[in-house]
Amino acid sequence: MCGICGFLDLDGQLSEDDLRRMNATITRRGPDGEGIFFERGVGLAMRRLAIIDINGGWQPVYNEDKTVTVVFNGEIYNFRQLRSRLESLGHRFRTQSDSEVIAHSYEEYGDAFVEHLEGMFAIALWDSQKQRLLLARDRFGIKPLYVARIGNGIIFGSEIKTLLASGRVARDIDWNAVDQYFAYTWIPAPLSIYRDISKFPTAHVATLGRDSQYAERRYWHLPPQRPQRSSRAELEQQVESALLQAVESHMVADVPVGAFLSGGVDSSIIVAMMTRFTDKPVQAFTVGFQQAGGGFLDERVYARELAARYKLDHVEIDVQADASAILPDVISAFDEPFADDSVIPSYYVSQATVRSVKVAMTGLGGDELFGGYKRHLGLNLARYFAAIPSPLRNHVIAPLVRRLPEHARWGDSIDHLKRFTRGSTGGFGAQYQDYMTTQPWSERQSLFRPDIAARMQEARTARIVLDLFEGAQTDSVLERALRTDIGLYLPDDILALTDRLSMWHSLELRVPFLHHPFVELSANLPANAKISGMTQKSILKSVARKWIPDSIIDHRKQGFEAPMGAWLRGPLLPLLDELTRPEELERVGVFNPEVVRRLRDEHIAGVRKNSKILFSLLVFMYWAKHNHA
Predict the structure, then answer these.
(1) Is residue 560 over pLDDT 60?
(2) What's the rounded Cα separation, in Å, for the pair 595 and 450?
(3) Closest CA to 341 of 577, 578, 562, 604
(4) What is the rounded distance in angstroms from the CA atom of residue 328 to the CA atom of residue 94?
(5) Long-range contacts (CB closer than 8 Å, 24 or more residues apart) made by 463-469
(6) Nearest to 468 by CA among 456, 484, 449
(7) Dist. CA 449–CA 455, nearest whole Å
(8) Three-class DSSP category at 127
């Protein structure tokens, strides 16, 4: 586990000193040491967090004659099986590390080597015989990789700050990225906040040689859905067996492996299964907030139940959260605006966990694979709502719902109901697009000054979800939504969030639910195994009942989120007001001050819950003040 960076500079302007300066920006990702490879116009560098082969697993790594050079960020969980196979084919290894397997796999299989890897990874490989650079990213985007084209060359790195440190990348803002940020609270790939920096696509491999020929291909797709016709009992057995295999594979490490434990189904079943593969108590970490308010559910009581059943080494983190105090760290971790309010608990649980372990398992991915969000249930129920005669649906029910006040004490319930009725006229894809965004363009547009809004391509923002939804290879509406989440929401929000904040604290996170054989199995389950009536994640809960208490499965779902609505009326309000003073808004020159004030006043008065758009605004203004404007 580490961070990587480098370049292929065909103009020869970047030096080894430039490479070292780039690498120094990601020391937090790898505090245990660094490695450098440099020759004319080619640089590969890494910072190491030692997890496997502590003493010998240094990078860069090479093949036998050093014609292949590799740096990589991540873990290859099947590296021992691959090594055994490669040794039988005559390859000789110098270390016990998973990184060396990459060099020999490339030597044996060429560019197709990535198809043999099980794990999370961002890879940079220099082939001195072919005089070309190869970049690759894992199937789901668990590990980040950013790229920028420079003339006929390319710069890459695990974080945006690494590319900026090269001195060869401009800081011009991409205004489409700004619109997408305010639509989603994060910036979907391939864009970043900077026009010249892109997110390298998931499940892709790319090559660039000294001949300036750039080629990029997708090496893995989620297969078309072919629902299994097995009995429910057989399906449950398959899910349980595959998840056990995923957890076991993710336990590989030469250091202790802990876990995040939220008190929900997903993290609880992962922790329970971990106990099968170790003879020591699993270290589990649970975060809760003091005086959260706003209807926030503290799930620590459920985590305690699991801890008692499995005799976990359980650590509770009682947070008196100070979001304004940690905001500089959060912004530095992302290098661009990012306003999923889960950043706050994720920051604190990473900070506390790394005091005890270097590696932690998470339950991320369970909701996206099995239909755990309210939007999944809403979409699944939408077909029944669509059966109501359209005059009654569009001219009676929808107008009545639109008039309902969004009082703070009702949380998101009214907002979800409005989205449910509002999207029913535009088809399932349009409805899912509406579920995914904070505001439609008709409302979002007024936030920006007219000259800024004119630079944005709203249709491009609107097509992000629709293109994935309509392109999903399945006839199931629910499965289309889940595949959209796998292609968009997971890599660009959930996985980005957890990677940046865990690695800011030099902590590696692992996601067994995203073991790709398990994902492929889950994608072929029938839709009614995922949502049955009003029961979400039905088959996963059935499996979980064998492992965890019923109380964990049956209590109201909270999600790993912060009580942002309450904080924006309380401890975060002074910072919001400071950053959105008229003179600050004028200096940044992006927003309409009257609309900003209205959104703020509505939220404070409890008339409408504007927490997502206000936190997005707060984060953007802080980023602009300290990183751009």
Answers:
(1) no
(2) 12
(3) 562
(4) 42
(5) 464/180, 464/188, 464/433, 464/488, 465/429, 465/432, 465/433, 465/436, 465/437, 466/429, 466/430, 466/433, 469/428, 469/429, 469/432, 469/433
(6) 484
(7) 10
(8) strand
Contact 498, 362 (CB under 8 A): yes
Return the structure tokens found at 397: 């029910």
Q: Is the peptide bond before 60 cis (omega within 30 degrees of 0)?
A: yes
Interhelix angle 374-385/427-436, nearest 10 degrees:
150
Handedness of CA 367, 501, 301, 247 (dihedral sign): positive
**Span 441-484, pLDDT tens digits:** 989 999 999 999 999 999 999 899 999 999 999 999 999 999 99
Q: Which helix (H) or strand (E) holds 373?
A: none
Give the containing element (helix H, strand E) for 194. none
Answer yes or no: are the C-beta atoms of 227 and 526 closer than 8 Å.
yes
Using an 8 Å Cβ cutoff, are 402 and 608 in contact?
Answer: no
Phi, psi of 474, rounded to the nearest 5 degrees = -160, 155
Residue 212 CA to residue 544 CA, distance in Å, equals 52
- Cα dihedral across residues 525, 526, 531, 532: positive or negative: negative
**At what angle are helices 323-334 and 611-623 packed, to 10 degrees?**
70
Rg value, the chain, Cα? 24
SS (H, E, C) 266-286: HHHHHHHHHHHHCCCCCEEEE
SS3 of residue 393 by DSSP: helix
pLDDT confidence band for 79 (50 / 70 / 90): very high
Distance between CA atoms of residues 421 and 344, nearest Å: 32
Encode pLDDT of 542-553 as tens digits: 999 999 999 999
Task: Mention every residue, 6+ apart, whose C-beta is less than 8 A from residue 530.
Answer: 370, 371, 478, 482, 536, 537, 538, 539
- Given phi > 0 = left and psi -120 to 50 = alpha, else beta, which region is 400? alpha
Q: Tell me whether residue 46 is exposed, middle or buried, using C-beta atoms within 10 angstroms of its C-beta: 0 to 12, 13 to 18, 19 or more.
A: buried
Residue 607 phi/psi, 5-degree rounding, is: -75, -35
From the list 554, 590, 377, the residue with the least C-alpha distance to 481 is: 377
User: What are 435's two structure tokens?
Assistant: 């579920």
CB 11 within 8 A of CB 165: no
213 Cα distance to chain centroid: 31
| Structure tokens given for 8 | 């292929």
Nearest to 178 by CA among 435, 429, 430, 447: 447
* Catalytic residue annotation: 2
> pTM of the predicted model, to two decimals?
0.93
For the chain, percent of residues with pLDDT exceeding 90? 72
Q: Distances from the Cα of 242 to the Cαs of 84, 122, 259, 377, 514, in angstroms?
A: 23, 25, 19, 25, 11
Neighbours of 629 (CB within 10 A): 13
Residue 128 DSSP class: T
The single-letter DSSP state of residue 54 is T
Q: Are 331 and 622 in contact (CB under 8 A)?
A: yes
Write the DSSP symbol of residue 557. Answer: P
Highest mean pLDDT: which range of 50-54, 401-405, 472-476, 595-599: 595-599
